[in-house]
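Appendix B, record 7
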Amino acid sequence: MQRIERLLESNRQWAEELKAEDPEFFERLSESQNPEFLWIGCSDSRISPTSSVGMLPGEMFVHRNVANLVNHSDMNCLAVMQFAIEVLKVEHIIVCGHYNCGGVKAAFDDARYGLVDNWLRYIQDTMHKYESDLAKLPDYDSRLDKLCELNVIEQILSVGETTIVQDAWDRGQTLFIHGWIYRIDEGIYRDMKITVNSLDELDAMRSRQKSDARPTGTVTA
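Structure tokens (predicted):
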């Protein structure tokens, strides 16, 4: 219980510090939220999306799950996307993975943890899709890093293939999808240089992924 009390005390100190800097901050925050960004990332406890990019509460809408997956059967993720895009009018979706992701590693190793194995099956599909490319890499660590990158790329495609995003593009709404990846031992995000903001760009990206043995936008670890 002492640990819980410490959390509550830390929260009080954090709130007081913010109010000391800006006495009306929480009052304004309670009235509305107007984030420009939707973050789709991993649930890993070592990553704090908002604070790690220097944002305050209210500046980023966040969805997290094991291994930052976007599955078209996941009503939770789709509901977050729909609200962020259609109600909050975010202009940027950041799909962020990270190296040495436990979920990606479990899928790569074909490990068995229970219910989550079914969730991670989507990563195994990606692994099999790029099996020949992964096999060309020299060692286990480089293959795992590459699979973490490929997972981000596949989720960008999944985001763009939702009716939510495609309907937004059809009505002329400004909406960019970006791919980032994070290295925990450095604390640094890397832009994977993949950004799409139209159905044509998404189709071009999909075509490159099908025709080119090398995944586009790969980041050098």
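Remarks on this record: The chain has a mean pLDDT of 93. The radius of gyration is 19 Å.
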